[in-house]
Design a protein that fits this description.
The chain is mainly beta. It folds into 3 domains: about 1-75; about 85-245 and about 280-385, Porin (Beta Barrel); about 250-280, no CATH class. It has 6 helices and 18 strands. The protein has helices spanning about 1-20, 25-35, 40-50, 55, 90-95, 110-115; strands spanning about 60-65, 65-70, 125-130, 140-145, 150-165, 180-195, 200-210, 215-230, 235-245, 255-260, 270-275, 285-295, 300-315, 315-330, 330-340, 345-355, 360-370, 375-385. The strands form 3 sheets. It has a 14-stranded antiparallel barrel. Strand 16 and strand 17 (about 360-370) form a beta hairpin. Helix 2 packs antiparallel against helix 3 (about 40-50).
Length: about 375
């Protein structure tokens, strides 16, 4: 009992230190300095996102009974998560800026990057994106947003990642044992609103499913995000948390088996059983971004948007993304960016064309991303706004 009490004392002490030290107080101080009143809804929302991200911002995750720092050179959590398709970038505009997009997200792909980004979208928006990965892997995204009131918007999105037909091999047959398919699916529903002309927030609930052969793993996850427009060079600050959910495991008929061995049981010649699969977490991501138009309206009919994102991951080290977007006459856009501290992704480039009438707006975007050893990645996106 004395040993148990000592453990409780140590844990309690560490919890008190964690609660009174980093993210919560930092968020409160940031809110106070930004002009938020202590009791304002906006300040509470920022504190909430910061609280939810405590395990990430402190950079520590439990693995096999030990705590591993994500900032350490010998980081060992890589590959520890499942449902990693939730980390794949969505949209050619964001990919052209190498994933530096969370503070700039103001189109339909904000449903993935930062749900707060749809809060000020005008009219009804629809969009789709197609990505051609290496090895015949494809990613498809389709989404829509609708206004539910003057200050609130709702959005729905479907993402499907298909790994194509894969040759099956068995113990009895090394090759040509058949063909099977693997795929991932995410369906999300989002609500976002503008509390003021400067602050917006959003929250997403999503259903995730991964399938291979006749096995599948599914469950719910949640995202939350915020955007705040400052007076400092009209800079936008974003904060978002993605993939907050419980562990899950695969199940299906392929796990069932029948053991035909008379030595197993003297009464029955065969016994039926089922294999147990271990559970896995989904990749939790906490991201902070800043964005601004460097021209600040001083160059007629031109914008130069810059975005910098910092993100920390439960299954990998911190990542940094820097991107730029030049827009001419609100009609043509050219983009470039770089993803730092990633094992494969690096340079991103892209372009887009915007067609606009009184009641309709259409956008076509293309992006190309390089990898270190897996070839190039092509993306194309289309979207339309009806007012």
């Amino acid at each position: 009992m004395e040993s148990f009490s000592s453990v409780i004392t140590i844990v309690t002490s560490q919890l008190e230190t964690m609660i009174h030290s980093t993210p919560i107080h930092q968020a409160r101080e940031a809110g106070r300095r930004s002009g938020f009143h202590h009791g304002s809804v906006a300040a509470r929302w920022i504190v909430l996102v910061a609280c939810l991200s405590i395990p990430l911002s402190r950079g520590a995750f439990a693995q096999g009974g030990t705590t591993v720092s994500t900032t350490a050179a010998n980081f060992t959590n890589a590959g520890a998560s499942g449902s990693v398709f939730t980390k794949l970038w969505v949209g050619a505009r964001a990919a052209g800026m190498a994933g530096a997009y969370s503070a700039l997200a103001n189109d339909i792909t904000a449903l993935y990057w930062n749900p707060a980004g749809i809060a000020n979208l005008p009219g009804i928006n629809v969009g789709a994106s197609y990505t051609s990965w290496f090895g015949g892997v494809t990613e498809n995204f389709i989404a829509a947003t609708v206004p539910v009131s003057e200050h609130y918007r709702a959005g729905f999105a479907l993402t499907v990642v298909d790994y194509g037909n894969i040759s099956e091999s068995t113990i009895q047959q090394d090759a040509n044992a058949g063909i099977y398919n693997a795929n991932d699916l995410a369906f999300s529903a989002t609500i976002a609103g503008s509390l003021t002309d400067r602050f917006s927030f959003g929250a997403t609930a999503k259903y995730l499913r991964s399938s291979i052969l006749d096995l599948s793993a599914q469950g719910l996850a949640f995202d939350a995000g915020s955007l705040y427009l400052t007076d400092f060079y009209h800079m936008t600050i974003s904060m978002d948390l993605s993939n907050l959910g419980t562990d899950r495991n695969f199940s299906g008929n392929s796990l069932d088996f029948i053991a035909n061995n008379p030595n197993i049981n003297a009464v029955r010649d065969s016994l039926s059983g089922s294999l147990n699969t271990g559970s896995y977490p989904i990749p939790l991501i906490f991201r902070i971004g800043v964005a601004s138009d460097l021209f600040q309206g001083k160059v007629e009919n031109q914008k130069l948007n810059m975005d910098f994102d910092f993100s920390t991951h439960s299954d990998g080290p911190e990542q940094y993304n820097l991107g730029a977007e030049y827009i001419w006459n609100d009609m043509a856009a050219f983009r470039a960016g770089y993803a730092f501290n990633q094992d494969q992704l690096g340079l991103g480039v892209g372009a887009g064309f915007h067609f606009k009438t009184e009641n309709f707006s259409g956008i076509v975007d293309y992006a190309y991303n390089t990898t270190k050893s897996l070839g190039g990645i092509n993306r194309i996106s289309i979207s339309a706004t009806f007012q």
